[in-house]
Model the fold of this input.
Amino acid sequence: MLRSMYSGISGMKANQTKMDVVGNNVANVGTTAFKKSGTRFTDALNQSVLYASAPGGGVGGVNPSQVGIGAKVSGIFKNMKQGSLQPTGRPTDLAIDGDGFFIVETAPGQKGYTRDGSFSLDMNGNLVTSEGYKVLDKDGKAIEIPKEMTAGGVKKKVLSFNFSKEGKISYLLEDGTKMPELKPDGTPVDPTKQQVVGVATFQNAEGLELLGGNIYGVSANSGTPVINKVFGHITQGSVEMSNVDLSEEFTEMIVTTRAFQAASKVITTSDELLQEIINLKR
Done:
C-alpha cells in the first residue's frame, strides 16, 4: 500500500480533532468565562529511504532522505486570556479583573476553581454557583450573607452587601450603619478578621483540568493553589465573558476544512494510483 494513503488518513484524523476543538469554541462563545482552546500538530513517523553518511574516501557527505507518514495532534492548549467584563447589575455577580479563580466546594472535602462568578443566594443565604456549589472564603469556609445583623445588641435588617476589590464583604444595615459579617453566635466579628472571598492562583493555570460546568480541577502539572496572595481585583455586579473570537474561529474552520479536503484528496489520488497498478494485469 502507498505511504501517501496513510498520510492522508492521519491528516484527516488530525484535522477532525481540530474541527472538534473549533466547534466547541464556537458553541461556547456565549458561555460565561469560557476559555478557548487551540490545536497543534506535529509530524508523525518518518521512514528513512537513504541514511546520512559523512564525507570520506574522496566523496562528500550524503544527507538523509526520509519520507514522512503523516501528522498527529501534539497537544490541545487552553488560552487563559481574560475575557471582557460584562456589567449585570446583580449584587451576587462577581468577576476577577486579572489573575485568579474563585474557590467552590464541589463535594465534601473537594474543591473546584472557576472564573464564572455568576453566583446567587440559596434559601440559607449561602453564596452558590449555578449548580449549587458553595463559594468559599480564603479560610475555606462557605460564604453566607445574613438577613439580619446584631449592632448594639439589637438585630437589624441587612439592606445590601458589598464586595471590595480585595474581596472583603461588608453590609449596610437598615439604620445606615456598615458592618462586617457575623460570627456563628450572631455577633459581628472584629473588622480585622472580616470575611474575604477566596481567590486561588496557580503557577500554570493552563495545566488545570476541565471538569465541566465552568469548573477546573487541580492536575499534576497545574501546581498547587496559592490562596489570596497576588490576584486581580474583584468587580461586583459584573461577570467575565468568553474569550472566543468568532472571526478567528471561522477562519480556523475554513483552514481546517480545506486541510481535511486536501488530505482526503491524497487518499483518492493514491487510490487512483493503486487502480493503475491493478490495471497492469489486464
About this structure: Residues 85-240 form one domain. The longest helix spans residues 246-279.
